[in-house]
Amino acid sequence: MSKIYSSKTLDELDEIRVKLFGKKGLITAEFSKIKDLKADEKKEFAQKLNEKKETLNSAILEKKHELENLKLQERMKKEAIDVTLFDEGLNIGALHPITITMDKIIEYFLSQNFSIENGPLIEDDFHNFEALNLPKYHPARDMQDTFYTSDNNLLRTHTSPVQIRTMQNEKPPIRMIAPGAVFRRDFDLTHTPMFHQIEGLVVEKGNKVNFANLKYILENFLRYMFGDVKVRFRPSFFPFTEPSAEVDISCIFCKGHGCRVCSNTGWLEVLGSGVVDPNVFKFVGYEDVSGYAFGLGVERFAMLLHGVPDLRSLFEGDIRLLEQFK
Ligand code: PHE
C-alpha cells in the first residue's frame, strides 16, 4: 500500500499493479489458493481477499489520477508560450532609404501646411508637356528622355503634371506637394530609368506670390534637410517657370572647399524651381493669380544624406546595403 502512495511515475505505478494483479501477481496468486481451501474457510478468505483487492485497486486508481494530473501540469508549464516575450534575434525589416528620405521631405512640407497630391504614372502629352508650356517639337522636350506607351501617352517624366491636374481640379489658393515615381530613358552612375521626385506648387490670387517667397521656403527646407549649408540660386531655364533657378547647396562633404563629389566646384545642385510661367496658368484657365513651383529628385537627396556613391545600388535590393538603414 505504501508503495502505491510513494510511487513517483505512472510507469512505477503500473509496475506495482502488474506485481499485484498480473498473471503472476501476488493477489492473483492468493485467488488461486481459494480452490485448495476447505469449504468453510473459502467464504471468509474470498471475502477478505476481495476487500483487499478493492482497496488496492482504488488506491492505484486514485494515485493514477494524481500522477496524470501532475504530468499534465508539468507539460503545460514546459510548453507554455509567453506571447509577451520578445525574441531579440527576430529579424525586422527596415524602411528603404528612398522611403526614409521621402518621408523626411514630406514631413517638412506638411509642417508648412502643404497638402499632398497624386497623379497617374501613365500621363498624356497634354499634362506632361503641353500644359507645362512645352509644345510639340519644342526643343526643351529633349531635356527629358521619354518612354512613350502610345502616340499620346507616356510614362510621366516628372511630377510637374500633378501641378496641372491639381489646378484643373481645385481653385486657388493652392499649396501642394506631389511625391512619386517618374521615368526617363537614362541609366548610369547617377541615373536610373525609374526614380522619384517631389514637386511643389504654391498659387495665390493676385500677385501675392513672388520669387522671394520661393527663396524663403527653399532655404529653410534645405537647412532642415542638410543642416548649416549655404544656399545659392543659379539662373536657369524651365519652360513652365519664369524666371527659373536651379538651387545649389554648399558641398556637405568638403564644406565648399572642392572635392570629388562636387567636382571641385564646392556646390551641389539639388533643386529646380521658379515663378510659374503665365502660359501655364492660361492652360488651366486661371486668371489674376501668381505662384511658384519647384521639383527635386529624392534619390539625389538620399545619396547625399547617406553617402551612397552609386544610385543604381539603391534599387538592387542587396540586403547588406538595406540593413544599414535599420
Ligand atoms: N520638372 C522639373 C524637372 O523634372 C523640375 C522643376 C519643377 C523645375 C518645378 C521647376 C519647377 O527637371
UniProtKB/TrEMBL annotation:
Details of cofactor binding: Binds 2 magnesium ions per tetramer.
Primary location recorded for the protein, binned into one broad class: cytoplasm
Class of this enzyme: ligase
Source domain of life: Bacteria
Domain Aminoacyl-transfer RNA synthetases class-II family profile: 106-316
SUPFAM superfamilies (alphabetical): Class II aaRS and biotin synthetases, tRNA-binding arm
Cofactor(s) of this protein: Mg(2+)
Reaction(s) catalysed (UniProt annotation): tRNA(Phe) + L-phenylalanine + ATP = L-phenylalanyl-tRNA(Phe) + AMP + diphosphate + H(+)
Cellular component GO terms held in the UniProt record: cytoplasm
Coiled coil (residue ranges): 42-73
Locations listed in the record: Cytoplasm
Pfam families hit by this protein: Phe_tRNA-synt_N, tRNA-synt_2d
Keywords annotated in UniProt: Aminoacyl-tRNA synthetase, ATP-binding, Coiled coil, Cytoplasm, Ligase, Magnesium, Metal-binding, Nucleotide-binding, Protein biosynthesis
Residues annotated for Mg(2+) binding in this entry: 242
Gene Ontology molecular function terms on file: ATP binding; magnesium ion binding; phenylalanine-tRNA ligase activity; tRNA binding
Enzyme Commission number(s) of this protein: 6.1.1.20
HAMAP family: Phe_tRNA_synth_alpha1 (MF_00281)
Family per similarity comment: Belongs to the class-II aminoacyl-tRNA synthetase family. Phe-tRNA synthetase alpha subunit type 1 subfamily.
Entry-linked NCBIfam families: pheS (TIGR00468)
Name the UniProt record assigns to this protein: Phenylalanine--tRNA ligase alpha subunit
Species assigned in the record: Campylobacter ureolyticus ACS-301-V-Sch3b
Taxonomic classification: Bacteria, Pseudomonadati, Campylobacterota, Epsilonproteobacteria, Campylobacterales
